[in-house]
Amino acid sequence: MALLKVKFDQKKRVKLAQGLWLMNWFSVLAGIIIFSLGLFLKIELRKRSDVMNNSESHFVPNSLIGMGVLSCVFNSLAGKICYDALDPAKYARWKPWLKPYLGICVLFNIVLFLVALCCFLLRGSLENTLGQGLKNGMKYYRDTDTPGRCFMKKTIDMLQIEFKCCGNNGFRDWFEIQWISNRYLDFSSKEVKDRIKSNVDGRYLVDGVPFSCCNPSSPRPCIQYQITNNSAHYSYDHQTEELNLWVRGCRAALLSYYSSLMNSMGVVTLLVWLFEVTITIGLRYLQTSLDRVSNPEEPERESEGWLLEKSVPETWKAFLESVKKLGKGNQVEAEGADAGQGPEAG
């Protein structure tokens, strides 16, 4: 028994074809929007690729760009099919290809739904990428004279200023690395020598942060050196006083920014997916109702359209049987090829 059977006369079939034609062109615009969103996200990720550990984070924008292009292609083709469906002679050319095309549309909708889910679920991967990338970037902050790394200081400073953040997880991350280049250290100074000797790795570590960590909204002049030394500053207690530094780490700031972008894009992609599913269902009704017209020369006659020719369990059973037959056919062909090679080898 057919699933969700609906009766159509000529007027209803014409309205359905016209409505689907219009919806397909709206979907072409939606595909352009998805493509643009993917391109925008890719550009935003590329801007800060120096503080990202690998290219896994580009999976979402690449997927959105690809699905946007496919959406434009498929919906343009579907619009042409719906336009030609009003003419029996033109529709006859499309008739043998409609079932495979609908199968491709179903597969496209599944992939589009998975891409929308990826927009929401890749937060953990992005967090790890940002954490390791920022850690490496801070380590190379002092290498202003090293080719290939001389830009890292500017990158980190601009990042901390733009996103109002400091360090990877917080400002204390700067205490654990030498972020001042040896070029600007006076090695004849006793203080510098003592600090280097007191460190196992021979690094110059200070309880200070770069200037880009300073919060300009603070009324007090920025305290960026000897942050944990209360006696070095008048009326100052680093444990109780609100520091005039950005407290939030840059990993959290960037993760929040990119997560909000991808969540918004995920919502848009889900809406487009619902629209695409509606179009696919409409195309299925149009195809089945036109195929059931017994005499193409009498288009005004009523016909029935449906979503599935059989019930869901029967359709699934038939699909599994066709897959099994396909597998057996490939196996027989392979055995026949092996048998043919035997005598030749002899």
Query: What distance lies between the first and last C-alpha atoms, to the nearest angstrom?
Result: 56 Å
Beta-sheet strand percentage? Answer: under 5%
Rg calc: 32 Å
Q: State the secondary-structure class.
A: mainly alpha
Give the SSE order as H and E letters: EHHHHHHHEH
Largest sheet: 2 strands, antiparallel
| Count of strand segments | 2
Show unreliable segments.
none
Helix fraction bin: 55-70%
Summarize the structure.
The protein has helices at residues 10-47, 59-84, 88-121, 123-139, 152-163, 190-197, 250-291, 312-345; strands at residues 6-8, 303-305.
Explain what you see:
This protein has 346 residues and is mainly alpha-helical. It has a two-stranded antiparallel ribbon. Helix 1 runs antiparallel to helix 7 and helix 4 runs antiparallel to helix 7. The radius of gyration is 32 Å and the shape is elongated.
Overview features:
346 residues, 8 helices, elongated, mainly alpha, 2 strands
Task: Give the helices and strands, then pairings.
Blueprint: E1 6-8, H1 10-47, H2 59-84, H3 88-121, H4 123-139, H5 152-163, H6 190-197, H7 250-291, E2 303-305, H8 312-345
Antiparallel strand pairs: 1-2
Helix pairs in contact: 1-2, 1-7, 2-3, 3-7, 4-7
